[in-house]
Specification:
Blueprint: E1 10-15, E2 22-27, E3 30-36, H1 43-58, E4 67-73, H2 77-94, E5 97-102, H3 103-110, E6 114-124, E7 127-135, E8 141-143, E9 148-150, H4 155-159, E10 166-168, H5 170-174, E11 184-185, H6 193-205, H7 224-228
Parallel strand pairs: 1-4, 4-5, 6-10, 10-11
Antiparallel strand pairs: 1-2, 2-3, 6-7, 7-8, 7-9
C-alpha cells in the first residue's frame, strides 16, 4: 500500500466536550502538533485561533486536511455545539470528509487495553456521564452498554459487581475518594483530541466517514435550559 491519504490521511481533530478542550493534528498514527486549552476560557473565543496555531506549528495549510474529526459528546453542551459547528463549517467549505467520535469512546481509548473499562466524564451538578467498554491491544473500542447520566454514588450499583474494572477520564480523577484502595484508575490524559484522532483514523480506513450535515451531538441528557422549560 502507498503512504498517501488513503493510508496516512492528514487528520485535524477537535475536542470541545471538556472544559479545557484540545486539538490534535496527525498524519496517520503520527502526531504532528497538539494543543490543550484553558478551562477558564470559552472555546468560542479561542477555537479558530487555536486551530491556526496548531496548523502553523506543523507548517500545514488547512486546505491539506484529508479528514476533520470532532468529539461528538456527551460533554459540555455549549462546547459540543461550538466544536461540531466548527468542523461542519470547515469540512463543508473545503469539501472534506469528517467524522464524529463519541467522547466516552475516546476516553476509554486513552486508558489502553482492558476487557472492562468504565469511562467517566463530569456532567455538571456533581453528576457523571458513564459508559462501559472493552478496548483491545489494537485500540478497538467496543461499547458494552449505553452511555448514561448518573450520580457518582450510583456507579457502584451499576458496575460494582464487575471484576477488574479500569476506571478512566476526568470523572474518575475527580471522584477518587469514592473508589476502594485497590481500584484501577487510569492516569488522566490531557490531550483527548489525540485519541479522537486515533479512532477517526480507524473509521477513515474502514470508509465510515460522514458528510458535514450528518454530524450530530450526543447529549445523553437534556440541557439545563430544556429542563427548566
Amino acid at each position: 500500500m502507498s503512504d498517501g491519504p488513503q493510508t496516512k490521511p492528514l487528520i485535524l481533530s477537535i475536542e470541545t466536550a471538556t472544559l479545557a478542550g484540545s486539538i490534535a493534528l496527525a498524519r496517520g498514527e503520527k502526531l504532528l502538533a497538539g494543543f490543550v486549552g484553558d478551562p477558564a476560557t470559552s472555546h468560542s473565543n479561542t477555537l479558530l485561533n487555536d486551530i491556526d496555531k496548531v496548523l502553523s506549528d506543523a507548517r500545514v495549510d488547512l486546505s491539506q486536511i484529508d479528514l476533520f474529526a470532532v468529539a461528538s459528546g456527551p460533554g459540555s453542551f455549549t462546547g459540543l455545539r461550538i466544536g461540531i459547528a466548527t468542523v461542519k463549517g470547515l469540512a463543508a467549505t473545503l469539501n472534506s470528509a469528517c467524522v464524529g467520535i463519541p467522547t466516552l469512546q475516546a476516553i476509554a481509548h486513552s486508558a489502553g487495553a482492558s476487557e472492562k473499562t468504565v469511562a467517566l466524564l463530569p456532567a455538571g451538578r456533581g453528576e457523571l456521564f458513564a459508559q462501559l467498554f472493552s478496548v483491545t491491544t489494537e485500540g478497538i473500542v467496543t461499547a458494552l452498554d449505553q452511555a448514561s447520566h448518573i450520580a457518582p454514588q450510583r456507579l457502584f450499583e451499576k458496575y460494582g459487581s464487575l471484576e477488574n474494572v479500569l476506571w478512566c477520564g476526568e470523572g474518575a480523577s475527580a471522584n477518587r475518594a469514592l473508589f476502594v484502595e485497590n481500584s484501577r484508575i487510569a492516569p488522566r490524559v490531557r490531550n483527548l483530541a489525540e485519541h479522537v484522532s486515533s479512532l477517526a483514523l480507524m473509521r477513515f480506513r474502514e470508509k465510515h466517514v460522514e458528510q458535514p450535515d450528518a454530524l450530530r451531538a450526543i447529549y445523553v441528557r437534556p440541557s439545563d435550559a430544556e429542563l427548566k422549560a
